[in-house]
């Protein structure tokens, strides 16, 4: 059975002044896959996924999601269609309780608020901290809370921007287990610098460099690709 | 006792105290507290925009003035009854907030403050110069015969007090329900982190507009009640001072607390009342109170209580 395409970007472009942050990118996501996006710092990864989730307006090109053109759809409506984004720089409601942080995600999609919020916290191991003020959590727990908010939206596509940055090894293992649990109901697009995590989780990898796609393929193919080795993996 | 029961118990107890005040207070204080309850309703509305949603408006006098003049001019020039005039005042407040919000909410922070201030100033000048309708600076004194609601004479102490209390009670219950609802949670989320809220799927513009319109409805209701209860509809009540006052009351009582506006308005009112008995510089006393506030309780009285002891206070 051929994989169903969930998201399809064509000629996606975003320049900042003279800087070609994202430059004519074609990109496909198969429904249910874990897809990693890698590339050196400043390659345009965050900008690219920001175009997908609507945080940054598209200058040229098109995005189709679940069969519909969403190129001009505002960010909050894309969330309604099932695209969730977790920020590279932790963005939580620091002055609200852990419970309220996740409840805000749960109530957006509807459903039993209290039960679903507790379940989402249970799943990431933050249940016993529900009443704590989010800003007083450790850095690692704040990252986990951010992921919990994304998951609580029950999205069709979850975009994770360097989720393991600054996490301890044990926390990374928990994270990997979490991501494996959510597929294939949720498709995962993962920006990640930790190559162990990438090779472990990803079914396909796309490499960005200077705003352009350098290569797309399975982990084995990417590892063997000479251009990728030269630009990023360092041989 | 669950938290929800405790919360409702506290707020209903405050309403019960105010109800008792209607029977126990001497006439002089009855008039004062009636006025405070109307102004506190205005401040509760301001708090919904500022304290909960994070919209620092300097133009609320326009919404208060819309209610005040909306109701006052209908009574004065068209002979409309107090009840329908009050309803029109409420609608006028909400409508003014919607128009201002549609434009001002395209800006943020300082720009939002300035745009709302300019709108209110334009409204104030419109009132000032349309003397044929508004009697300008002098204002309109509404005749006693026109201030009758369902057979009650609103210029008499007791009915005035209870209408003021009814307005305040409705405002309080509605606000308590709102801020504890999912909608209230989203308002606070916007105040705390707009970008995060947007990426959770909430439309910041639409949500802020809704909060501002609710705020405007409160201001309109308070403005209409003020004119009908105290019989005076004047331009000074729509001046910049009346945009700043609710901000001060809310800051004093505690921004983002349900009862803070009442505490702030009551305290400030009596501070000025008592100090003006022995000094003409009563504003200096207000200034001193605000300096003390900034130094010792920057989150206002109830905000500080909540931080220290009453974590559950909404
Ligand atoms: N809002 C912006 N304004 C100007 N330049 C930006 C902006 N956002 C990103 N850039 C630039 O675009 C390039 C790509 O950035 P980014 O997408 O964050 O890369 P990555 O996530 O791959 O590290 C960088 O050179 C960055 O400085
Ligand atoms: Mg990045």
From TrEMBL, chain B:
CDD domains named in the record: TM_PBP1_LivM_like
Cellular location(s): Cell membrane
Membrane topology: Multi-pass membrane protein
Sequence intervals crossing the membrane: 6-28, 49-70, 82-103, 110-129, 158-178, 209-235, 247-271, 283-305
InterPro entries with a match to the protein in the record: ABC_transp_permease (IPR001851), LivM-like (IPR043428)
Keyword Transmembrane helix: yes
PANTHER family assigned: HIGH-AFFINITY BRANCHED-CHAIN AMINO ACID TRANSPORT PROTEIN BRAE, HIGH-AFFINITY BRANCHED-CHAIN AMINO ACID TRANSPORT SYSTEM PERMEASE
Protein name: Branched-chain amino acid ABC transporter permease
Organism: Albidovulum sediminis
